[in-house]
Amino acid sequence: MFRKFDGLWRSPDFMKLWVGQTVSEFGSHITGTGLPLVAVITLAASPSELGVLAALGSVPILLFSLVAGVWVDRLPRRPIMIASDIGRMILLLTVPLAALTGHLSMPLLYIVTIGLSMLTLFFNVAYRSVLPGLVSREHLLEGNTKLATSSSLAEVGGPAIAGLLVERLTAPIAIILDALTFLISALSLGLMRKAEPPSVKHQPESMRRAMRTGFDVILHDPILRALVIAHTLRAFFGSFFAALYSLYVIRELGLTPLALGIIIGAGGVGALIGSVLAERVTQKYGIGTILTLLPLLSAPLGLLTPLAAGPPLLAAGMLMIPQLFGDAMWAIHGINEISLQQALIPDHLLGRANATVFFLSQGIAPIGALLAGAIASASSARFTLLIAIMGFFCIALWLLTTPVRQLQNSDVAPAITKERDHQVIIE
Q1: Is 58 helix (H, G, I), strand (E, B) or coil?
Q2: Other CB atoms within 10 A of residue 201 CB
Q3: Which residues contact 15 (CB under 8 A, 6 or more apart)?
Q4: What is the distance of C-alpha 178 from the center of its chain?
Q5: Does domain 211-426 have CATH number 1.10.10.60?
Q6: CA distances from 162 to 26, 33, 68, 174, 402 (A)
Q7: How far, in Å, CA of 189 to CA of 171, rounded?
C-alpha cells in the first residue's frame, strides 16, 4: 500500500519553498558553526575577538529590524528573499577567496558577519510573512509544521555537517559548500509560480509612522498583545540560559564538553519530535490549550536544570530531560504561535508585525544576558538559572488569565477572513 500524499504535499509552490528553506536552514546553521571555526582554526582568534564576532551578529537586528518590516510590506517578498540568499552567498564566498589570496583577517570576518546578519534579518522577516499568501489559511499549521521540522533537522545536523566539512576540507573551503546552499534556496524560490497577493495601497506615510504600525497591530489586539508580551519576557529569561548554560554545565556541574554537546543535541532531537507531532497534537487538544498549557508544563520540568546534582551521569540525565521534552513542547508551541499570528494579522501588515516581534525579543535579550552575568557573579549560575525558571513559570501563570486560553481551532478561521479590523487601526 502506498501512502496517500495530500494537503501541501500536492502544492508545487509550497514544496519549492520547503525545499529551499530546508537547504537555507542547513546553510544558516553551517554558517553559525563554520565562521567561528574559521576564526579559531585559521586565524587563531582570541576569546575577545570571538566575543566581538558573536556580538556583531546582533547589531543589525537591533538597528534595522523595524525598517526591514516596512520594506517587506512595501515590496514583493519573494524577491527580497532571493536577493538575501544571493547576497549571503556572495558574502560567504569572500571568505575562501580571501584565504586563497592571503587576505583573510578578523576585520573581514566582522564585516561578513554584519552583512550576513543584515541579510538574514530581511530574509527571516519576509519568510515569516510569505506563507499566508502562498497557502490557504486552513493550511497554515500544516505549512509551519513542515517548515519547523526542517529547521529542527538543520539544528541537529547543521553543526555536525559543518564540523565534518571543516575537518575534511579545511574551514575556508567548507564555506564554499555552505555558500552554495543559499544559491539552491534562491533557485527554489525563483521557480515558484504563484503570484504574491497585491500590495494594499495606503496614503504615503513616513518611515517612523510605518514602523509604529507594527506596534499598533500588536497592541490593539488582546490575543496578539498577550502572545508578544509573553514571547518577549521569555526571550528575556531565556537569555539567562544562553549566557550561562555552558558555564553552569562545565564549571559548576563538572561535566565534559562532550557531555554538554550531547545534552544540547538532545534538545535538537526534542524540537524535531515536537515539530513532527505539532499538527496532530493541536488538532486533538486545540490551539488555546497548546499556547497556555505547554508553557505551564515546561516550566516545572525546567527546574531539573538548576537542581541537577550528583554523579556526572545523574546530573547529565537531569539536564537531558528538560532539553528533550521541554524543547519538544516549545517546538509545538512555537509552530502554533507563528500560525496564529499569520492567521490574525492581515497580509499587508505581516512584515511590520513580525519585525516588531524580532525587535522586542532580540532587543531585550542582551539586557537579560548582562543581568544574568551580574547575578551569577554575585551568587552562582545555578541560582541565576533558578530565577529564570521561576520567571518562565510566572509568565505561564499570567498567560492563563488572558484571552489566549479560550482560543479554539474553530475560532481562528472566522477571524481570518475578517482581518480583525486591523485596517481601521492604521488608517
Answers
A1: coil
A2: 7
A3: 8, 9
A4: 19
A5: no
A6: 9, 6, 29, 7, 43
A7: 28
C-beta of residue 410 within 8 angstroms of C-beta of residue 208: no
Alpha carbon distance 287, 265 (integer Å): 28
Rounded to a whole number of angstroms, the CA Rg of the chain reads 22
3-state secondary structure of 226: helix
CB environment 415-427: b (16+ within 10 A), e (fewer): bbeeebebeeebe
pLDDT at 200: 56
- Reported confidence tier of residue 19, pLDDT bands at 50, 70, 90: confident
* Same fold flag, 7-199 and 211-426: yes
% of the chain exceeding 90 in pLDDT:
29
Q: So what's the pLDDT on residue 154? A: 79
Query: Residues 262, 368: contact at Cβ < 8 Å?
Result: no
Contact 182, 24 (CB under 8 A): yes
Average pLDDT over residues 65-83: 87
Residue 57: exposure state from Cβ atoms within 10 A (0-12, 13-18, ≥19): middle
Cell of 219: 497592541
* The amino acid at 392: F
Assigned superfamily of 7-199: MFS general substrate transporter like domains (1.20.1250.20)
Residue 290 near residue 281 (C-beta atoms within 8 A)? yes
- 3-class SS at 205? coil
What are the residues whose beta carbons fall under 8 Å from the beta carbon of 362, sequence distance 6 or more? 58, 61, 62, 65, 235
* Spatial CB neighbours of 291, under 8 Å, sequence gap ≥ 6: 227, 333, 336, 337, 340, 399, 404, 405, 407
Average pLDDT, the chain: 83
pLDDT of residue 411: 56
Q: How confident is the model at residue 202 (pLDDT cuts 50, 70, 90)?
A: low
Q: Is the pLDDT of residue 219 over 90?
A: no
257, burial (CB in 10 Å: exposed 0-12, middle 13-18, buried 19+): exposed
Helices (H), 206-256: 207-219, 222-247
The pTM for the full model equals: 0.76
Q: How far apart are CA 272 and CA 372, in angstroms?
A: 29
| Domain spans, the chain | 7-199, 211-426
Does position 424 have pLDDT exceeding 50, yes or no? no
